[in-house]
Amino acid sequence: MASGREQFGSNMAAVMAMAGSAIGLGNIWRFPYMVGQGGGAAFVLVYLLCVVFLSVPILLCETIIGRRAQAGTIGAMEKLAPGTGWKWLGILTVISPLIILSFYSVVGGWSIGFFFQSLSRGFCVGDTGNFAAFTSSLWMPLVCNTLFIFATAGVVAAGVKSGIERFNRISLPLLFIFIVTIMVYSLSLEGSSEGVRYLLKPDFSRMSPRVLADAMGQAFFSLSLGVGTILTYSSYMKKEDNIVRSGMGTAMFDLAFAVLAGFAVIPAVFAAGIEPGAGPGLIFETLPFVFASMGEQLPFISRLISIIFFLTVVIAALTSSISMFEVGVAYLVEERHLSRRRAVLYILLGTWALGSLCAVSPAVFDFCDILTSNYLMTFGGLLFVLFVGWKMKRSDVWGEFTGEGGQRGNARIFGFFYFFVRYAAPVVILLIFLSNLL
Ligand code: TRP
Question: How far is the CA of 26 from the centre of ligand 1 (A)?
């Protein structure tokens, strides 16, 4: 069935690619800030439960579909449910990652811009309004967005093994080395312990339905669920790979990176005497200020750290954007029989056009962000879960989950998994969807 189709070289390579997709901007700015707001360690605990009991099963559903079908999203629906309305799920999940990519690449572009600035002249304390000036200039966001999209396309054009796999194999260890370096620096700053306390103090009184819904939403977003990227990557996994192990591995890498990023960002912010704010402002406004004020005493070190920091953001964003780009390419190559190069060119032109619009228009940016993060991702996730629970044959699901029965440990938990996928997961995802709607 897999004749002529590229595959990842090993189980570890597949895990690294999926972890690369998962680790991104969501880990670096959204997670640290949510931890602080949601009651510190209490939030981390709730988030951990959401990841293990919600994200991992949904991730496994995408993996089961992708690896069973050995095809991208539309191809998978045509193979596993030919001639049915499920084809629309395939179409939806080819389109949504491209919409995500369009605004994600803008933020990737900002990171490139800030990386260049830290290289060329660094940040000064008097630089207030830097971010606003950057984003409201016409050509800077456009140029940086273009650089980012072309870099993404370049990796995807090189193929599954020598492009995507190789890039992730190098990037993932680098990301961890960089974030740990920044964390060590951050924790060494005077006044950072206040930030550590902010992250660690378990405050269960902050728990509310709203915080719980946020934790679930973050568990969804951070693992790149619901838009077919995990499905597509899984279709490059080998039949003998243990999907439960790789799903858990992916989730653990993602969680570890989020926690490290929390300890890298928040203590530094506190050390500079600022309260952590929300959203993109945290890394594009607050942190440059932090680097600048540290730079008054230690110009060299703080400059170096700011370079490493924005390089980390660029790489983390690239490993995610590559996975979004690949979904569309897989469709054009497999279903439309285009060459990989031509497919990359078409997707590049489309996302570049929409991305440029997002780069110059905050309204288009917000529209794409809200449409995908709040609605399309959860909706897609719901349909994937229903597909595995109610449409696929139980024996096929069992076969994928247990390696045709060979993986004993997986066989033992299959009953629980299957029950969860059929009944509990759809209800929980529907609740997240509704809470976003309100
Ligand atoms: N997981 C990515 C992050 O944390 C963001 C993301 C959301 C994503 N949906 C995705 C990445 C789909 C790839 C594909 O930054």
Answer: 7
